[in-house]
Amino acid sequence: MSWVQVVANRSNEDIFDEDADEMYPVQKEWNNTMRKRLKEGYRDGVEAGKELALQEGFNQGYRQGAELMVACGQFRGTLNL
């Protein structure tokens, strides 16, 4: 059946559904947008947390390494005298 026949057969039907909820498409789009933003926010938060933990770990390790090397350098200097 061609589309012309379908349109002709339905020509007596009301194409406007006055009982339809006009806000449904808008609400559906809003929900999809909010769901996407929630996922993006979660990903951004996880990434920021990883970066912060990595930086803090590096800072702590660098500080401990520097303190240890200063002590080793002083000990080595004392032995060379």
Automatic annotation (TrEMBL):
<dbReference type="GO" id="GO:0005737">
    <property type="term" value="C:cytoplasm"/>
</dbReference>
<dbReference type="GO" id="GO:0005634">
    <property type="term" value="C:nucleus"/>
</dbReference>
<dbReference type="Pfam" id="PF09811">
    <property type="entry name" value="Yae1_N"/>
</dbReference>
<dbReference type="InterPro" id="IPR019191">
    <property type="entry name" value="Essential_protein_Yae1_N"/>
</dbReference>
<keyword id="KW-0539">Nucleus</keyword>
<feature type="domain" description="Essential protein Yae1 N-terminal">
    <location>
        <begin position="41"/>
        <end position="79"/>
    </location>
</feature>
<protein>
    <submittedName>
        <fullName>YAE1 maturation factor of ABCE1</fullName>
    </submittedName>
</protein>
<keyword id="KW-0963">Cytoplasm</keyword>
<dbReference type="InterPro" id="IPR038881">
    <property type="entry name" value="Yae1-like"/>
</dbReference>
